[in-house]
Every structure is written in C-alpha cells, then in structure tokens.
Design a protein that fits this description.
Length: 196
C-alpha cells in the first residue's frame, strides 16, 4: 500500500458537513504517529540492533485510525463509543481486502490495547505506543505523564502496560514535530472549539 492509496481510503470514509476538516485532523494525526513510530524503530535499531519492518510500521500508522470516521454522524456528533473505533477500523480494512497483518494495527492501537485486542507484534506495539503521544479530539501532543494519567483513569493496569512500553521503547523526542505542527495545531483547535 502506498501512502497515496491510504490517503484515498481516508477520503472515502471521511464524511459529513465537516468532511474536509475531519479528514485533515485524522490524516495529520496519522502522519505524526508515523513519524513518532519510525523514530522509535530507528532508536531500537541504532541502540539495540533490533530490526523492525519499517514499511509495515508506516502502513500501520497511516491506517490505524480509519475507524474514527464511523464514530460520528454528519454533524460531527458522537454516534457510538469512541473506544470501538479500533474494531470498526479493523472490520473496514478487512472488507477492503487489507491483510489481517495490516488491519490489526487498527484493532490493537486503542490506548495500550483494549480488552482482548492487544498489540502482539513489535510493530503493533510501536504504533500503539506512538499513538499515545498525540491526540485527535483537541489535536495536541501529549507528554508521557499526561498519557499515563489518562491510562490510569481508564484502568490502572493500562498504566502498568504503558510503563512497560516506556521501558522497552523510551520516550520519543517530539520537539521538532511540535515546532513543525505548531501553527496547524493553533488553527485546527480554533476550528474544533467553534464546532464542539
């Protein structure tokens, strides 16, 4: 799958009167998660000689949130539990003929893995962990501590898993990404405030 093909898939599932803005939020978030994920993979290789499938990581990061669009109606109001967007995304991808190996990135990325849908490969863990460092609701970067606070609120065990990911992968450096997307965050959050 090429990045342009994945973008077309996002275009297909984005909908409603705010289609352009929602697509921009989800796609930009996906690009950010891709960058963080590849940084983690590069660090593993450089520091521990652990090789990962970077192409798979890239694809996984770009498709992980395809189920997001299905959580909202045409007025951008919630129509289902947000936590289900991973499962929905997996189902969408399987229907589109995407392999289970790739579709699992949607299924296993929510939080640190949800119920039985947990990341099982190194590549899935990397994307799942990277996703914790950027939010879509009010688009912003999250520190490890902020992510930890959120995870513990949901389930104290999730905090234990997030800590394990930190011990395994370290904390990514998002300084350059923050600078690159600073203006975009300001503009898109102004829009989000106007419609929420």
């Amino acid at each position: 799958m090429k990045q342009s093909d994945i973008y077309k898939l996002h275009q297909k599932y984005a909908h409603g009167k705010y289609k352009k803005e929602i697509l921009e939020i989800v796609w930009t978030h996906s690009l950010i998660v891709k960058n963080i994920s590849l940084q983690i993979a590069d660090n593993l290789e450089k520091n521990y000689s652990i090789k990962t499938d970077k192409k798979l990581i890239e694809i996984g990061a770009l498709i992980h949130d395809i189920g997001f669009y299905d959580c909202f109606d045409d007025d951008y109001k919630n129509k289902c539990e947000y936590v289900l967007h991973g499962k929905t995304g997996y189902e969408i991808l399987i229907k589109k003929g995407v392999s289970k190996k790739r579709a699992r990135f949607a299924l296993a990325h929510v939080g640190v893995g949800f119920e039985n849908d947990i990341p099982i490969t190194l590549e899935e863990e990397i994307v799942c962990y990277a996703d914790n460092f950027h939010s879509k609701g009010h688009p912003r970067f999250n520190s490890f501590e902020e992510s930890m606070e959120e995870m513990i609120k949901i389930n104290p065990d999730f905090g234990v898993i997030l800590n394990r990911f930190k011990d395994k992968f370290g904390i990514p450096d998002v300084k350059e990404l923050k600078e690159k997307y600073k203006k975009w965050h300001e503009e898109i959050n102004e829009w989000v405030e106007g419609v929420k």
